[in-house]
Amino acid sequence: MECIGNNSNNVDNVVDNRHSETCTKDNKSDETNSDKVSEDLSDESHSELKIPKAEPCENLDIKVIYNKKKYDVSAPSSLLISEFKKQLQDLLGVPDSMQKLMFKGLLQDNQTISSAGITKGSKVMLVGSTLNDILAVSSISKQEVAEMEKASTVKEPLCKQKLHRKVLDKGVPEDVMPGIKNLKESLPPVPLSGMLNKQGGKVRLTFKLENDQLWLGTKERTEKLPMASIKSVISEPIEGHEEYHIMGLQLGPTEASRYWIYWVPAQYVDAIKDCVLGKWQFF
């Protein structure tokens, strides 16, 4: 009987010990899992705190030079160049799409003022023309507009249209540059001169590639046209004088805003189109 009683006590002790060990293991497992969760949360909190520092933003006083005049303009250093152009459009009346800003080279729209290296007191040059300036170059009468619309409907060659005959009938100007048909040449290093406009006055074309401008010179004035303001260029040979062309520079949205040039040497026509429309030539 005593042996039976002792065995019973021993069994109970074994069960209690095993239960205690199991509880201890469970507690250790819980503690381990708890530590891992704490570490994970700690890592997440550290990763969330790694926020890139924003660039400091300050207002800069910038000097904008346009048509030989200086304008004081204030703008945030984080402002995009495209937005800065809109600010200048409101101030100077030059459409942002026709602006070119120069500061140690041509500024790109996706740059910010600070990333372009512009600081307080920097001088930025603006190249561009107002719409009024551009359209003034191509003033045209209602009668001429009607004639052009009629001609476009009939689709006569340019050289046979009444609008152009009054200039062409005067003949080839004596001082015009020699023309060569069926030949393509690069632009000469000197201005193209001796040509005529629709009033019969002398016209000179000077290509200022470093400023992205075409200088349209007459006896009365010289218009400095940004290349971007010229929407298209059309030309046709002059019948009986195929070594010369009639050329139209599209300065506005309609045909009425074309600036006509007569007796353009044929060998330079393609080079003029490439230069004006963006395919610059290197000499």
UniProtKB/TrEMBL annotation:
InterPro entries: UBFD1, UBFD1_C, Ubiquitin-like_dom, Ubiquitin-like_domsf. Residues 1-49 are annotated as: Disordered. Residues 58-127 form the Ubiquitin-like domain. PROSITE patterns: UBIQUITIN_2 (PS50053). It comes from the Eukaryota. Residues 1-14 have a biased composition (Low complexity). Pfam families: PH_UBFD1_C (PF25343), ubiquitin (PF00240). Residues 15-49 have a biased composition (Basic and acidic residues). PANTHER family: UBIQUITIN DOMAIN-CONTAINING PROTEIN UBFD1 (PTHR16470:SF0). This is Ubiquitin-like domain-containing protein. It comes from Hypothenemus hampei (Coffee berry borer).
